[in-house]
Amino acid sequence: MRFMIIRKADAETESETSPVGKEHEQLLKDMMAYNQAMLDAGIMRGGQGLKPSSAGARIQFRDGKPTVTDGPFTEAKELIAGFTLIEVKSKEEAIEWVRRWPSSDGHGNVSLELRQLYELEDFEGVAGPELKELEKQMHASPDVPR
């Protein structure tokens, strides 16, 4: 079972300050140790931090037509600051890994969300050979998390 751990944005992750420097040194060490533990356990499939929404854009469709709005966006609690993709045997195991999230992140005040990914097996009876082949090709790419 694959799960995404979603790190919700906050005022600090949305700030324009550089993520390098003395104030971020402990957090970087802690996150590296956490990620290494997941790699050592063989469950980590990917993960990245995201730049502030000021570097992004929001694209909304109305009647099939896109409208692009450049960031920043005002509601930080609705934004994502980063993600970690893991593959474990159960939701309970995923929750146990989330409980180990470094307390130095957000000075101990972080909001995380755990979401299970759809698997091709979830679409049995609907997924034809074309979808199965596309899935196979995507997972063969070194740039696509499995």
Automatic annotation (TrEMBL):
Pfam families: YCII. It comes from the Bacteria. Residues 52-72 are annotated as: Disordered. This is YciI family protein. Residues 1-103 form the YCII-related domain. Belongs to the YciI family. The lineage of its organism: Bacteria, Pseudomonadati, Pseudomonadota, Betaproteobacteria, Burkholderiales. Transmembrane segments: none annotated.
